[in-house]
Every structure is written in C-alpha cells, then in structure tokens.
Design a protein that fits this description.
Blueprint lengths: L6 H9 L4 E5 L2 E4 H17 L7 E4 L5 H13 L2 E4 L6 H10 L2 E6 L1 H7 L11 E4 L13 E4 H5 L15 E7 L7 E6 H14 L7 E4 L6 H13 L2 E4 L5 H10 L4 E4 L1 H8 L14 E4 L6 H10 L4 E6 L8 E3 L13 E2 L3 E6 L12 E7 L5 E2 L3 H7 E3 L12 E11 L5 E6 L4 E3 L2 E3 L1 H8 L5 E11 L3 E10 L7 H11 L8 E5 L13 H15 L1
Parallel strand pairs: 1-11, 3-4, 3-5, 5-6, 6-7, 10-11, 10-12, 12-13, 13-14, 26-27
Antiparallel strand pairs: 1-2, 8-9, 9-19, 14-15, 15-16, 17-18, 18-21, 20-21, 21-22, 23-24, 25-26
Helix pairs in contact: 1-2, 2-3, 7-8, 10-11
C-alpha cells in the first residue's frame, strides 16, 4: 500500500528496477538508482537533524538533484517547498521565513545571489549545494554541505513515521494580499491527484513525459507524480527555445506533453518535424488558461494523431476538470467535467446549487482538497469552507475549496469558465497578485501612486499594465520603471506596459484607487490600438 509520495518511486523500483525514471541531458537514471539516491539523501536530512514535517526548500532549475531533494524529504518524514527558480532574492527570503525552512537545496550561483537575504531567514540552518566544484562559494552564516556529502551521510535515525494525511509539500502561489500564499498539500492530496490524472490520460509504464513546466507549479510537479505512479519516464527540460522543445519531442520519443497557453501559441507558430517523426506523441494537455481556438486548430492539424486534453485546475485542489478529447470538437470552449475522484458544484449567492447554465461559484470537494494556506488562518477560512449540501446528521463539516471562479454548468454537466471574482492577473499560466507588483513599485523614487491591472493579451492570456503617478520632479520614464521592475521581479511579473500620469489616479466611492475603472479604460485603449 502506498501512503507517501516517495513510495511511488520505491514501488516502481521494485517492479522494474532497470526502467528509466529520469532523463536529463546526457544522464539516464533508472528507478533503482533514483530510489537509492532518494533514500541516501533522506538519511542525510535526518543526520542534519530534520524533524517530522520540517520544511526543506528546493531552489533549483529542473535537474535530477531537484527531484531527488523533494522526494527525499518525503522519505525522511519532512515536507518539501519547491521554489520557482525565476523568483528574486527578496521573494525567496519571504517564503523561507514564512514556512520556517530548515534546509535549502540550491546551487552556488544561486546562493551567491541570496547572501544578503539569508540573515532574514532565522530558521535556516543548512544549505546543501549541488555544485561543490564551484570555487567561489560566498561566505554565509549558515552551514554548507556538499551534495555528495549529504548523499553519503550514515545515520542511526529512523525516518519519521508519517501517514497520508500528513503534510507532503507547500506550493507557493500569488495571494491577494500581495504576499505569496503557501498551499499545504498532504500525501493523500498528491497521490489522489496522480492516480486521477493517470487514469484519464491512460498513462502506463511505456509513456515518456516531457517536463517543461516549473516544478514549483502544481501542473508541472504533477508530471513527476503521474509518471512515477505508473512507472513511466520523465524527461527534464529547462525550456529555452521552441525548436529545442520540438527537437526533444523527436529525440526522446515523447508520448505526453503538458504546457500552458502561451507556450502552445509559440509552438503552433513553429515549423514542426514531419508527422512520422512524432508518431510517439500520444497526447498533449493544456491548463493555466484557455487555449485560443486558432492555436488548438493549428496544433490538431500539425499533430492529428495526438489526443488533446483541455483542463482547468487551481493549486488549492490540484486539478478540477478535464475535457475528454472526443468532446473537443463539440465543446471547445468547455473546461470539461470533474476529474475522477472529485465532485464539482456550481453554487449561487444563496448557497444553493445553480440551475443548468446559471452562473455561480465553482466549489470542489474530495480527496484533492488541500489542507489550507500555511500560516494564514484568515485566508484559509475564506477559501476553505464547509461543503454545501452536507447531510444534516453529520456532526463534523466536510471542507471544500470555494474557488472564487464564476462558472456555469450545462444540462449535461459540462462546465464553462466565466471569470474570477478577485483582482488576480493570469499571465502565462501564473497567477499574479497586482499588490505584489505594486509593493515593489512603491519603493521606487519619484512614484507617489501606483496600480497594476491585467488586460487581455493574445499570447499571455493577460498582460500586466502598470499605471503610476509621478511626483513634481517629473523625471520618470516607462523604460526606467520597467528596468527597475526587471531587477526586483521575476520576468512573468514585470509589467508589459507602463502608463505615467501627472495627475492623481481616479478614486472610487471608498476613496481607493478605482482599479476596475482604470482596467476598463485600458482595455478600451488597447482594443482601439488593435
């Protein structure tokens, strides 16, 4: 019986020890070798004093060490925190401090960029470095351990006993407060998600899945758990150019590819290999936003033999819906039905189920519902609430995720996305809090007011537009503001356009900057230019 996510690897190692688990550049790692290295690093964690459910952060690009580091946390009885490698030092420091990270696994280059913020992480005791040959490791207040040493530590400590409802991971996503929110996932959540996805994608040990999405993204990480649950192989790729990805599809005989709309749009515009060179590609999946119809049509013409799965999900419940390939022609604008193991309801303002095609909030119940937000009881209470229509005889409420997304369900049970109730901006599959951008800009000289809004974009889904009021010096330029943002924000958070105003930004009846009014004006402006 599998209760913990690292057991996905150990079970496959027992069943097919020589089967390839991971491929990365010239490296080929079997399930037996991967399982052994996971167990070795788990011993290293225990020897460094990791306690049950302690947090271990992984701040690396996609590479075998990142995978080993995360699954070893499970094997030791700890929890892992995958951090997007695009995040800047201040953002990383917030995450490390917020969830009290004890061990950080990273590279020497990344550590050098972090040396000023390490003192802001009071619980951080150890840094495991994956590239110990680097001679220019910066001096730091925490203890450094080379990767090979961590793998070869002997320990008399037994792994901490955990069960499936214990914490397995914390995935950070942008929050409405301007600070990232840590979504707490149990082993049960992640195992249920892997089993559900593998079921409707018909995954098997013969699959070879290309992992191009960040492992800090639930959609990206699920490529690992889904593959490992059936003994399939994962090819790790740090995406650079579309042609590099297409080349790997052929060279590695990829059977499954997951991506977000901006990447699909890019790929649809490329010259693809001949269809016979892509005969292994069995399916493609999309989540993180709606795939444009023209892109979908182009991809289906390029790879007609590949099945297309259109999906919708939220980190708080991992994945919620999928549209079966057979329904893509008849319902291309639908996000589908509930995935196996989940129930989805559309609830109106009165707390009742909506009639067919009536707009309401999507509510998700089942084993995939996360444990809440780390260290944030208030936000947890807002998003994780008792499920509607509970049986009156049950003394304890069942907690569901109230998504904040407005949808409708037709008479046949297919769901259609309408919009979000909050101000979050969806850029290239990432949820971006406008406040997170605004708080950075607030520190810039000569800016007295600022607001970030999202406007529709044909490639990214939405683009971030920054509107600022400059002070009397009037020496701001849009170019300079974007350059400052680039230094302090990851690329996907950098505003695509900057508007500089000399007068105060408009206010609503409560005296706050009228975000909706500015967003409407900008949308009209951008539509007129188009």
């Amino acid at each position: 019986m599998i209760d913990l996510i690292h057991q996905l690897i150990s079970r496959s190692a027992q069943q097919s020890p020589g089967a390839e688990a991971l491929s990365y550049q010239a490296q080929r790692i079997s399930y037996a070798s991967l399982s052994e290295q996971v167990d070795q690093l788990a011993c290293g964690y225990l020897e460094l004093g990791v306690a049950r459910s302690d947090r271990i952060a992984v701040y690396l690009e996609k590479r075998p060490e990142a995978v080993i580091a995360m699954f070893a946390a499970s094997a030791a009885g700890a929890a892992f925190v995958p951090i997007n490698p695009l995040l800047k030092p201040d953002q990383l420091a917030y995450i490390l401090a917020d969830c009290n990270v004890n061990i950080l696994v990273t590279s020497a280059d990344r550590l050098r960029a972090l040396h000023k913020v390490v003192p802001l992480c009071p619980d951080l005791r150890w840094v495991i470095l994956v590239d110990t040959n680097n001679k220019s490791v910066v001096e730091t207040s925490v203890k450094l351990v080379p990767w090979e040493q961590a793998l070869n530590m002997k320990t008399g400590h037994m792994p901490h006993r955990c069960i499936d409802t214990d914490i397995a991971a914390i995935l950070y996503t942008s929050g409405s407060t301007g600070k990232p929110k840590g979504v707490v996932l149990s082993h049960r959540n992640m195992l249920a998600g892997a089993a559900s996805v593998a079921q409707y994608l018909n995954n098997s040990s013969s699959d070879r899945i290309l992992a191009v999405l960040p492992l800090s993204f639930d959609y990206g990480f699920s490529q690992l758990t889904t593959a490992f649950s059936v003994g399939a192989s994962v090819v790790l790729m740090n995406y650079l150019l579309p042609q590099d990805l297409l080349r790997l599809l052929v060279e590695e005989k990829i059977t499954g590819l997951a991506a977000v709309p901006p990447l699909w749009i890019q790929l649809a515009q490329q010259k693809w290999p001949a269809p016979d060179a892509l005969s292994s590609l069995r399916y493609i999946t999309n989540s993180g936003g709606a795939m444009p119809g023209t892109t979908l049509a182009a991809l289906r013409a390029i790879i007609p033999a590949a099945q297309v799965y259109l999906m919708y999900g939220l980190t708080e419940a991992f994945r919620s819906t999928y549209l079966p390939p057979a329904e893509v022609d008849t319902r291309p604008d639908s996000i589908g039905k509930a995935i196996p193991g989940a129930e989805l309801m559309v609830i109106n303002k009165a707390g009742e189920r909506c009639a067919p095609n009536e707009a309401g909030e999507l509510v998700h119940r089942g084993a995939l519902v996360a444990l809440g937000y780390w260290n944030d009881a208030q936000k947890t209470a807002e998003r994780f609430r008792p499920a509607p229509s509970a049986l009156p005889g049950l003394p304890l409420p069942e907690i569901a995720v109230w998504s904040g997304d407005t949808v409708r369900m037709d008479a046949e049970g297919y769901l259609y996305f309408i919009g979000r109730d909050d101000d979050m901006i969806k850029v290239s599959g990432y949820r971006v809090s406008p406040l997170e951008v605004e708080e950075v800009v607030d520190r810039f000289e000569h800016v007295t007011e600022q607001i970030a809004v999202g406007v529709p974009h044909p490639v990214m889904g939405q683009a971030i537009v920054l509107i600022v009021k400059q002070n009397e010096a009037e020496n701001l330029t849009a170019v300079a503001l974007r350059q400052q943002c680039q230094m302090q924000l990851p690329a996907y958070m950098v505003p695509a356009h900057v508007e500089i105003m000399s007068e105060s930004l408009p206010r609503n009846a409560n005296g706050k900057i009228d975000r909706k009014l500015l967003q409407t004006r900008l949308m009209e402006l951008f539509q007129a230019k188009a």
